[in-house]
Protein 1
Amino acid sequence: MVLKIFFPQCCNRADSGLLVGRWISGHDSAVVLAVIHYPFIPGQVKQYVQQVSAKSGVELSVLGSWSLPKEGQEGMESFLRDLSTIFPQQRWLQIHREIGKTGFTCEVLNRDQSKTTFANMLLLVQMFQTVATSQPLFFMDRYDDGPLKSTHWQSEGREASIIVELLKQASVPLCLLISWLLSIWTWICNIRIFSLYPLRWLSSKLSTCVQLSYKTEHMRTLSSAKPAAGHTQFMRKANILVSFLVDVALGMLLISWLYRDNHIAMLANTLVPAADHVAKELDELLQWLMGAPAGLKMNRALDQVLGRFFLYHIHLWISYIHLMSPFIEGILWYGGLSACLGLTFALSLLSDMVALLTFHIYCFYVYGARLYCLKIYGLSSLWRLFRGKKWNVLRQRVDSCSYDLDQLFIGTLLFTVLLFLLPTTALYYLVFTLLRLVVVLFQGVLHLSVDFINSFPLFAVGLRIFRPYRLAEGVKFRVLCEEPGTALHLLMEINPLKFSTVVQMYRTPTYSCYPKDSWAALVKKLFVGELIYPWRHKTIKTE
Amino acid sequence: MEDEAFTDINGKAISLDCQSHSGLCREFTVSSPKVSVGKVMVYTCCVWLLAYTVFFFTENTAVLSSAILITLLGMMLHIHFVKVDHESLLVIGSLGIQVSSSYASGRETTKFIEMSKIKDIVINEAIYMHQIIYYLCVLLKDPSEPDAVSSVVPLFQSSKPRLNCLVKVYKSCQEILSKC
């Protein structure tokens, strides 16, 4: 087996001394964690290594000697070679480098014959685990004034940031404040009066209330007193925090645009005429349908009934809008304030307002769809009667059946009536379904953008751009030098995750709204006349 | 360093470069055929002719500027994400295998597979549209189950060299894999 030694780059220029690290069993490899410099007392080194070993739980040992001879340090080689007798090891490494050359020369003194044991974990995994758990070894940096001097990857000082430390100090009282506010809010929400049936059903349908509960959950995660348990939890908390801050910033931007230059009054002034215009268009549409639309000849009586019914609805709705028109500006003003909680709130409020304003289109769609659905079912059942068959509910299949003469007579009569009334109903159904689909599409776009803002892992993407070594997919090797007398020298670097993997792995799970049915199922439902609710909301995953 | 005249499955010329860094470490680089200038000119001319015809009918200069922008953007995206310049395979005995492809813009994607996960390197056959081609692939195994093949990683996917090139790489790799 080939001997593999993992050597930290920081020790490339370190002074001569002893190598401290760990032998990884089963792979014939060693990880060098630090170099303890000459001069040292071997007894102190042994004690120190034992101490650190016990504290970290990793079996550290003195691996061998490292020599980088500078001027005035001859005789080092023999001294370091003699050290192998002081530290009784199975294998003793001697790594040597000349200044000016990149290659190392490496010799191994094998005392006992080592037996190859079976490796049950990957080499690189074990190596990184060793480095991660040997934290106590890296506490001694070069500014310490102890008997031993060492060089390791943190000997220049540990990487830290003042801002992060300040935030850590400030976060404790902030978390307490937020959790207190949240407890008050949950108490308000749990008051009995809000648990009555209609309010509860309404709050589950309105997307604003859903957003509120969702954001409360997030705040609860953020303000919990325990620190994050693992990497995933930490990334999730950080992503939630950053998304929330960006959300609020975008909301503030929207507010600054909305409340400037009297934009609200402008919006309110265009809203009522717009609603009037929509109602007028619908009016004209119905008049057209009641005439001879596209040259088709409708059944006059049914046409008039349906048309007048829908026209009356529109008249009711327009009077309602005119009743509300003095209050619209006030509603918009206070509604716009909700954007200070985040852009997602403003968008959900907009989606709810659109749903309320186009409620009449929804009603028309339901009426048209129900009529059409009844007609289709009646037709299919009477068609079966026409052919002498019947639907067997018990067996869920079509069976032949012998009908009496009067059953056949009435059935055929009804069948013909329904069949000739079909074009009229179908046309009304088609028109109102198209209108409903337009509204659903618009609401879907709003919900998708809310979803996107909520679930996109901004912190993870930022980390990937600015500190790519913290999100690693693996390692990559590069051949550094191949001088013939020396060992093969490779440079190992962290291979960061791809952006697509980052987004996929660290997405915050949301009540994502996605199409419930495939296209085929949707078309079938439209054809038969079943009511469609194309966007489905998943329940929030609780972990 | 060796450079013979190899071709890929479509007949275009590619080159293979074998470097032996040490007894246990070898690197194979297969360079794909370069983009021909003629093809680029043909595409650009087509797009711009189309833009001019649309401009002739609509008299809107935004059409022309958007055509230029689209061409530039398309070319940049193509050389950054699609066009592979060369693919390399670095075999380090008893450590692992590293597969990397570098794109025309200089971007490199690398993947390293540890030796304990590798079962073998083989030449496999595949049905690719209307032909049957040979490709070199790495068979991976789960370290706990040394007999089952858990997945297959195909190598040199963009350059698709022919069998003579693959055999050369295969023989070299097997020498190293058998030593440890």
Protein 2
Amino acid sequence: MAEVHLIGQIIGASKFPNQSLFCKWGIHAGGGWKVISGLKEGQTQVDSPACDGITYWCHPVDIHFATKGIQGWPKLHLQVYHLDQFGRSTLRDQFVQYFLGGGPQLKNPDLIYSGNDRYRLQTETMGVVHLELGVVLRNFDKYGVEC
Amino acid sequence: MGPVPLEDKLKPGHEVRYLEEEGLHVGNHLAVTSRNTNKLERRLLAGGDRKWFGDDGEIISLPDPCRLVPFHPPVCDEVNSILDVEYKLATISDFENKYIVQPGDIGVEDRYLLEVDICSVTFSHHPLFSREHVLAQRVTELYLKYSERAVLGQGQRLAGRLEALRIARDSLKKVLKQAPDASQQQLERLQRYVAEIRETRRLRQMEGSNDRQLLSNLLLTWRDLKKLRELQGYTSTPLRLQIHKEFSDDPAAEIRAWDEEIRKEIDELEEEYQEEYNTQLDEYSKKLAVWKKRRKAMHEAKRRHQSKAEQRIEREFDEETELEIMEPSGEEPKPPAKVNMGVVRSEVMEGLFQSFRPPGEPKVYLELTTSEAIDQNPGCPNEQQRRTAVKRCDLYVKIFYNQKEVCSSHLQPLGPRFSVSIGQLFPIRILQWPESLKVELHEEGGTFAHHLVAEIYLPFPSSGTTLQNCSLEHHEFSSNQVLTFSHAGVGCGTYLCPFPEGSNKEVTCLYTSGVLACRVAWGVDNNKHGGRDGKILAPPEKYWTKEQRDSCTDLMAMLDEEGVMDIEKLREWAETSQLDPNDPRNASFFYLIKNAGVGFSTEPNYFRLDPLQAEFDFCKMDDLVANSRLRLLQLRDQREPEFRGLCVPLREKEIPKDMFKVYEKRLTYTDSQLESLSSDPLELHRDWGQKFLQKVRQRVLKQCHLAQQHRQLQDIVMEDQVPDIGTLGLTFIKWLQPKRPLRPTRKERKKITMQNVAGQEVKIIVNVIHAFEVPVRKDVDAVGGGQQAFRFSMVPVRPFVEVSFQGVSVRTTTAEGANPTWNQDLQLSLKSPSGDYSPGSLQSIQDNLYLHLFDEIVVDLLEDDRMRETNIHQRLERNWLGSLQIPFSTLYFNSRIEGTFKLYSPPVLLGYEKESHHREFSGLTILGDTQQVLPPRDATFLSLFITVQPALNPPEPFKEKLESSELAFMEEHLENWESQVAKQVPHRKVKTLVIDISGKSVCVTRFFQPLAPPVLLEGESITEEMAARFVSKIPKISGSILFPGLFDIWLTSDQILHLLSGDSEDHAVLLCCFLMYLGKTAWLLLGVGIPHGRTAYVLTREKEQHNISYWLWDPVSGQKYSIQDSFCPLQKVFCLINDENIWVNVQQEELPWRTRFDITHRSDWWPAFGRSVGAPVGSVQPAALVYVATSISATQMLQDRIEKQLKDCLMKWRKTARTLCNRYCIAILRKLLPALEHNTWNCQNLSSPDHIQELQHILGSHKMCGFPINLPYTNMEAITEAMKATGVHYNESPDVEFALAVYIHPFPNNVLSVWVYVASLIKRR
């Protein structure tokens, strides 16, 4: 059995239209993967930088997987939220949003884990999330996987 | 560049061929400029390779793949539904809590709505059923089954299938006949057909016989019912079965078909039997051949054996033959019997008659109606009684959500049909995560006044279910109630035969049962201001427990998490959806189901969506689970106590095999195992108490776990204050201020968060300031020895303090005199388990800080006086004078401890005496009013200052609100009062609601009730001192050690006696209850004392004529203090509690000797309960305590064991020297100990002269140094530790002798007081 240890941090985000941001993160792995220790998902604090273009979270990610195969390699899933500002797509939604807040969200968030349907999703780049992740592998060479 | 000549490109001797002209499709060539073509051709030719060219002299190329017309792949314009984006409003995310909506959050209250539509309740049996009803119910059930089968038409379906199979087989046979060289495949197919025909035939026969059985049953029951109606002369059920008979138009055709059927079946059977016979015959012939061969061999062997016996030379013997001889030749196989076709025929006929309608019999169609008239006035009085009972009976339902009643329906009459339509819709607005939904069926008026009929648990619908899209569900219910009646009602739970005169004489037991028809769905939001209609008000499904849903409606739901198909569900689905088994498209599906169920049960009964996936796997999932290293890591991550902070090795083989033993043992631990643990009743009781507390602790720890996760800002962010004008100004002013180095101001230390602690060393700093009233040596002259030692002998005592923590000890220098001053800083480092300095692990440190006061004695060893000028040869001895024990948790919670502490010193200290006694004896008594003179204090005091460096943040109190067993208004009142108190006197903590052992909060006043203390001495009434003594001998554990997070649990008196441990509050409650019984006015006093910080005392009031005096009792030590005593360890008085009220001290002063204790003064003591709200009535304490006498023999055994163990320890500690025992002294000490125990009961002076008198004989001949130690019995380790701490064994004198005696005084309920008298003796020269 091979093991993967992901350790690092979600440093922060930059170039987002708004700066009071927080991030919900999750690590999604296939069925043959088992979390040995650490948290699979979490949420950072809200950082509102007074100056500087970068929002810092410095949120630790430390998760240890054991796996029976390389299928379903862990995927990191990040959702960046902001505290509140406006700017939406259709007129009606903009209107609703202007008065009530909120934003568009996928009805089925699980969709984005697989590439099959994701390409059809029309998205717009909002900004950059900076990550620093160390990936420690163990025993993969035993099973003929070179890394 | 010109084109290449054609002949160059062709292979020599080949003609030019144009494929296109020959009619072959070539396709369009790619348009390439001729220049490029020529260039390429030349180059290829230069390489001398003609294989690139085709027969037409052109380069071989694929046709142009490009389309002429641009083409766009079809992309459906409508947005894929799963890609839908919806706008979500900005929300505050819910906590994963029991509550979905935080209570009090008004804006989102109607977010989740559960709708329960209870339609009707139909009883299939009810105690008020008459016999007729029972039969009618049976008819109905059978009819339902009948009509269900009729709809399914399984028989016809199978008949059709059989027909089809037969045709297929016949045609195949025909083919085979024509072509004699049949392929293997065809033969196999034939075989399969035959097998399938056989199977289908069997099935059809079974179905048919079932059908007929059912029909006849139904008809019989109906006949019974009719008979019963005739017999009793009235009808009380409206049931009527109409039987339609249909005679066949063409009886001849029917007979033909019947005969045909028989013929076919016989043919088939004959064929099968023939085949079977053939195979059996084959087998027989084979067996016969084997048998014959063996027989022959045996005969031969026999012959050889005989010849061998004659010769006896041949030693070698063929093993094989011997074996053959040993083996019996076996029975001669029998040839298989031929099948008698006559028998087969009759069998077939019989089978068909049983399962099919024989020709000539009419077809029967049944119809059940409820058109029968009911006789309104039956003549039978029993029946009339029954009917009035039915009329009186009303029914209603109650709905419970998460075990809480939410609503109930109106009363509905039961009615003669035993079917109640309720038809009410209950919308339930939910605030908690759904856990259970229960419907309770209640009955009123029928048999009893009111009773519960049945409870039905309903599954929660999936989050998409609304009332519009959900169908009516029928839930069956039943109850095991037993009832019998005198009237015509049959009752329930009794054995009866409804109609003994009828055909069915079976006696059955009927229980109340029935069907509830209801719908459960989530509400739909219709009137949202934003216009988002139709939002389903279901809580997000992924957070609540996955319910097992009835999922046979959806194929995808049958896939479980790993994509494995549940065959059972699949089969169920196939049955209900009525797939046509004859449809070739379904063939493979049915094949799968059949095979999965029938033959290959050893094969895995699932299929994988991706079968090749397994090829890529490194290992199986089980290997991951079985790997001990991964398991260890996982358990550590789950914070199981056994693995917390464990260092897990990198390789699996480095992990010891028994790693999980303790953990698994804990998981499978039961009380029965404990009983076999120890046979000693005393040990057992204590062990049990410990284990029980451990369990409670584990539970509490889990509860606290979440609360401890909440971190505050300063835990995470360390921020230095940015200097502003104000602070800068202050610094400038500081420079200008006059310097006063002799009057330093206190600087607040910065609290350090646990994150920052990690790298540093945490130290405990003990500043030992001074001590006073240290006992002084009595026989000074004996210590010194020679004349030169005179200067030592001048000094009455040379005390020093040794501090030990976690096995490390440091000591002060030696001071001199009875009131020494050291003023010395001692440092000890704190080692946290697993290097974790979080509050959670720090407060679980159970170590104590010990401070021991010793007297250092210098013994001169110099033998020769002449050498005294040049040599020094001395030995240092130490005599224990007293000790103090401070739990680390006290230090941690208070962050610093300072004050003057009374040392625990033995009641008798041989060889020492108090200086104050000295004075008394010399006549220096202070004259004055006798009331003012306090009894001479028998104690030594030590001034200390203890702190932790760097300062640690004390943990936050546990604030999670727990369920309360008090009424809501009471809870609210107490909370209000508490918050008002906190406003007025913020630092004085009061207790109003405390947690009992079940984890519910209870008002404190409920803990007080007069309780009888045990009888300690036969025939003597118990005094207060005796009660206090008894309470003080119950072992104490610090509350914070037991339950971290300042989460204290109060035990009731029977619990503390049962568990034999508790914290100071529990002791105080017990003592208070005893004192109340003894007629004292007693209160529980909460305050701050030294050295334990927050403690509980008992305050009593004594009235002597006009003098009112108050006394304080320390429940843990059993000491009694006057309120005026300035050395009383109680420092602050916060509040008083008794059974009537809670009073908080609102005076300026909180020192006990300055506080006024008249609780009737509202300005001094503010009560919680007044005229408007009274204290809750009813105590949680038991009415009386049950005392069990402690077994004397077990005590005696324990006493001997302790004595032996201590002696062994003493020898073990004195490794270098021989340990001698003075038997005479031991005998005397044994005699003395019981008297000491009795003295404590009467509060007498302990160092009474008789005590010394007894020892006078030894004291004359020996220099004796010793003391008795008294402590409650917890376990052996505590006693040995206490003795080791006194340092008796340090006496290195060569002619030292020891005396050691142990006495255990048994109190009732296994409470034991242990006395250890230890002394060292040196013979006087």
